Amino acid sequence: MIYTITLNPAIDRLLYLEEKMESRKSNRIREVTYDIGGKGTHGSYVMSQLDVHHLALGFMGDMNGEKFKKILKAKHINDDFTVVRGQATRECYIIIDRHTTGTTMLTEKGLTVNENDKHVFIENLKVKVKQDDIVLIAGSLPINFTMDDLRKLIEVLKEAGCFIACDLSGEALKLAVEMAVDFIKPNEFELNELNSTNENTIDYLKSLNNKIHYIVASLGEKGSYCVHDKKVYRVLPPKVKEVNDTGAGDCFVGAFLSGLYKNLSIQETLKLASACAASKVMHHDSSTFSLEDALRMKEQVKITEI
Ligand code: TA6
Asked: I want to staple 173 with a disulfide (CB 3.0 to 4.6 A). Which of 54, 70, 168, 213 is the partner?
């Protein structure tokens, strides 16, 4: 089973503009659609498409619970979110126009969790997670979920003996590294923050690999580096026409963990993840990708060991 933990999920509101967005002007919205938001839920969506036994966990607010659940259902995501009373799951706004590649994302802070909410969530996790499971913790933290809470969460998973994957940033990512989780996926900016002494990037990634089994350093459209078993792989994705890059990294992580779950080789896992992410950027919403296209593009992914 792969569990995804999205502590601060979102409902993504996609705003399609008539024209390029400009300040001091009324920017007309052509269309509004909704998608699931928050990094772990996107991973779950990929798992649902790849037929991987999965369950999405985290916190959700009861005030817009119906809307949130409806999107999860439409995306075939199995879930057992801890419901936070009197709170709403945040909305994030993704602004898309026909003239710009890349999108503008505006993210709300999210819900506030209290001590009881955190207790209920942790106890649920203790009952569920077993040694053979993979658990992904991804995305930002809700208000009042502290670094100590994150430490406790990782400790609970360590006690269960499962594979721990973290797609986190800032202090949360530093903590995941300190606690030697099994997988991290820093982007260039996050990697520079971690590599505080400016060591050569490849040497630094190799040194991280002494305690973290899988490191994927994502370079956006330029692909990624992956370090595993002291081997460094340069991964070049297929060239595609990008319409919305939101959620591409999440899609990569969901497919990568699915590859590990299915016992694929590291090369096959990287090809699958890279092709799914490439398909994602060709779609307008935050999570959709085409498995058919991904399976076709898999063979165009170039992997070299360096
Ligand atoms: O990566 C895309 C996405 O998951 C969006 O769906 C959006 O809701 C946002 O990121 C949330 O990011 P955050 O880091 O705030 O958890």
From this structure: 168
Q: What is the pLDDT of residues 115-156, one digit of tens each?
A: 999 999 999 999 999 999 999 999 999 999 999 999 999 999
Provide the 3-class DSSP secondary structure of residue 110. Answer: coil
CB-CB contact of 57 with 5 (8 Å): yes
Q: Which residues of 62-88 are buried (b: 16+ CB within 10 A; e: fewer)?
A: eebbeebeebbeebebebebbebeebb
Find the 250 Cα to ligand 1 centroid distance in Å.
9
Residues with CB under 6 A from ligand 1: 8, 10, 12, 37-39, 42, 92, 107, 139-140, 246-247, 250, 286
Q: Probe ligand 1: pick from 71, 94, 246, 284, max atoms within 8 Å of CB?
A: 246
Span 210-230, pLDDT tens digits: 999 999 999 877 899 999 999
CA distance 79 to 62: 15
Please write the tens of the pLDDT for every residue from 167-191. 999 999 999 999 999 999 999 999 9
Ligand 1 centroid distance, CA of 116 (Å): 25
Number of C-beta neighbours around residue 14 at 10 A? 22
